[in-house]
Every structure is written in structure tokens, then in C-alpha cells.
Amino acid sequence: MNITGKLDLDANKVVLALIISAAIVSGCTEGGGSEDEGSQSVTVNEFSAFPNPTPADQNTQFRMTLVNDGDHDASSVYARLYNPPFGGSGDDKTFRNPNGNMDEEYRTLSFNTLNSEGDQTPAVPATSQKDFQSPDLESDRDVSYTFNSYIAFNYSTVGTADVQVLSQEEFRNQGSPQGSANLENSRAPVQMEVRTPTPIPIYDDASGNPEKDFCVIVRNQGSGTPFNPDAVPTGPTDGEFNLTEIEDKKNEVEVTVEDVGDVNFIADGTASSQTKTVEIFDSKGVGCFTMELTQDSLVQTTVPVRIDANYGYRKAERTSLRVEGRR
Fold first, then answer.
1. What CATH number is attached to the domain comprising 292?
2. Domain for residue 7, yes or no?
3. Backbone angles phi, psi at 240, to 5 degrees
4. How many CB atoms sit inside 10 A of residue 246's CB?
5. pTM of structure
6. Range of the domain at 96
7. Domain count, the chain
8. Could you tell me if 104 and 161 lie in one domain?
9. Residue 58 is assigned to a structural domain of this protein
10. How do strand 42-50 and strand 59-68 relate by DSSP bridges?
């Protein structure tokens, strides 16, 4: 064999190996497909102090601007400032409330509800601000401070997919096909996919309505941390913005699969509930429901499934401020 022929053979082997590798990777993908709409939700447009640098023992304004670039409204949106030294009116070496006592409520910025964009209207940014008295530093002493904030809010993701359901006999007649449901997600930090292969065969059960497991994969693809919606702050006071409770319930998402026509979805064995708590471990969580067919006979049908994920979401942001001592 000449050199040119050998090179061509080697190149063909490389191409074949790449094709086989791609097929293996695609075949090992877990769960169904999903149309990933990214990690959009509440985004920080601005978090800054003015003036910066600021003279010692002078009024300083902190301003934060948020916008909701996801598909659903964000409710109970609050941001709490922490980390630099905060103190009372008599502690002139700390940041103080120029008009009264410093407490957790004063350090909390309220945004209430941030609406998502509409068909004809863009999402409107919202701004909240607080005034502080800067520390009284000695002459010619400059100090840089880092201000951190926790941003917490209630958010949701909606996923929709057409899921094919077959009777046991029809499933066999079609050669026991296996595929995946493509779940279309709304723009949100938590994304979902259907784990159960489709078509879904429903086996006859002489003791009652035929049933089948229906499992959903939940992933956090945002830059923050989801938590149980029960812990979402309802106000700016200390008891209503409990960071300890948020930490205790982090990575918990409430997932609901709605009943459709003759198909019911049951969570945790309770026929009256279609909602269960899914906890995310190592970037994903799995929640399984019982899919129950309530009609007497079935050959083939397509079920328009809707899956809702409700959760709180926490993000962190920081800014810096330089305080210059008296000149």
C-alpha cells in the first residue's frame, strides 16, 4: 500500500471512531429531552454606593436595581444587606441609620413583585435604595468596605410536553418502541425533563385502574440556590426574612403534575394530591408520580402534560465602597 492510501485509511478510522463515540454519548443521555430556556429570573442591573469614595461620617446612598428577564412574575422580592459593620446611632465607627436605629428591617430593600415581559411590553426594572451614615474615621485613614446582599424571591417554572400512552397490546404491536418526551421549559433558573421513556405502556390491572410511574428530573441551572417556597420572605422584618430557615430548606422544589382528561397523577400515594417536594442533590433531583388511567379501555392516546415547579430562589450580590478619613 502506498503512503497516500495508508493516510486515507487512517483518516477514515479516525472519523469512524468519532462517529461511534458520538453515538455512545447520545445513547447514554439520561431522561428525556428538554428545551433549555436558560437560567433567567431576577437579574441585578445595578448594586452601587454613591458617592464612592465617600467622606467619613457623611450620608451615603446604596442603590439596587433588579429586572425580571424570565417568563413568570417574581413575587416577594427582597434583598438584605449584610457583612460591613452596622451599628446604632451612638456607634460612630460603623454604618448607621442617619434617622434612627439600625435593624434588619432597615437593611432590607423591598421590591415586592417584579413582572415579566409581556407580549408587547418589556420587563420594567425596579430600584430600591437606603441611606447610611458612613463610619467616622480618623484623619488621613481610608478604608474599603465590601457590602454583600442576599436576594430572595418566589419563582416558578412551567414545562409542557405531549406524552404518548399505549395499551399493553398496542405497545407490543408497535414493537415496544422507546423514545423520550421533549419537555419545553419556561425561562427560569430551575429546569425540568421527563425521565420516563415514551410511549408509556399502560398494563391492565384487574384490581383497579391501570397505573404507571411517571418521573420528572429537576435541575438548578441558575447562579443561585432554590429553596422550599414555604420559606420565601413575606416582608422585610427579621422574622419574615429568616436566612436560617432558607438555608435549612435549600434545594427543595415543589413539583406539580396536573391531571389531564382520563389520566390522573398521584403524588406520594395520595389521590387528592398532585404535588410533591423534590430535593436536588449533586445538581439534580428526581420526583416520581403514579400515572393512573381512569377509562376502561385504551388503545393509543396523546396526553398534553403540564408540569409546574414552584420554589424560592436566593442569589448573592456584592459591591464595594471606599470611605476616606477626614481631611
1. 2.60.40.10
2. no
3. -95, -10
4. 19
5. 0.84
6. 42-154+315-324
7. 2
8. no
9. yes
10. antiparallel
pLDDT per residue as tens digits for the range 102-145: 888 889 999 999 999 988 889 999 999 999 999 999 888 899 99
Considering only CA atoms, which of 121, 131, 110 is closest in space to residue 51?
A: 131
Give residue-wise pLDDT tens across range 179-209.
888 999 999 999 999 998 889 887 766 556 7
Grid cell digits, residue 125 = 426594572
* 285 and 165 within one domain: yes
> Helix, strand, or coil here: 239?
coil
Q: Which amino acid is at 193?
A: E
Q: Is residue 136 part of a domain?
A: yes
User: At residue 256, what are phi and psi to the nearest 5 degrees?
Assistant: -125, 130
189: number of CA atoms within 13 Å, CB side?
A: 24
Instruction: Give the separation between CA 207 and CA 39, rounded to whole angstroms.
Output: 45
Q: Which three cell numbers stand for residue 224?
A: 443561585
Rounded to whole angstroms, the Cα distance separating 34 from 20 reads 24
CA–CA dist 178, 55 (Å, integer): 69
Coil vs helix vs strand at 8: helix
